[in-house]
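Request:
You are asked to prepare a plain-text protein record giving the amino acid sequence and the backbone structure tokens, at your earliest convenience.
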Amino acid sequence: MSSSIKAPFQSYHTLTKDIDALSLSLEKTHAKHLNCKKGCDLCCMAISVFPIEFYAIKAELNQLQLPNLPIPKDNTQCRFLVDHSCSIYQSRPVICRTHGLPLVYMSMDTDEYELSLCELNFTNFDYEEFDEENTFPMDRINSRLYQLNKQFVSEFEGGKYSEQDRIALSDLLGQ
């Protein structure tokens, strides 16, 4: 990625690098319990992202030649999933970078931590063995992303977006 594309999104790219590093560590820790691999797309669906993610990904994709992507049969499928493979994998959003791994977050209903897992992974695992060292701290990650987005929208096009706004990822294709 060129430095002119990277500059306005440096903090976002730092976050994605931190997430990728933690993902790699967790993948090694949980290798025998992960069934994720190229071609597995159970978690790939149409999503919306914060403006900072949308525009950071858009800046990266503007440097690439994406093939003419087919339109999914239903609107719940990710527009960038082609033949069971992510066509924007290197630029994928934060949520896509964490899928498949054990995610821990505070429940909105009970004020207790909840664990989220892919139904294809950890089928023979003692859930009591999950702890802070072997799970994704989604609250911290989402908080960092939210703060980065808040700063971004405050400076972007005269307040075009609020800090709560989300943009459909498929809008990257302008269709």
About this structure: The CA atoms of residues 60 and 90 lie 9 Å apart. Residues 10-29 form the longest helix (20 residues).
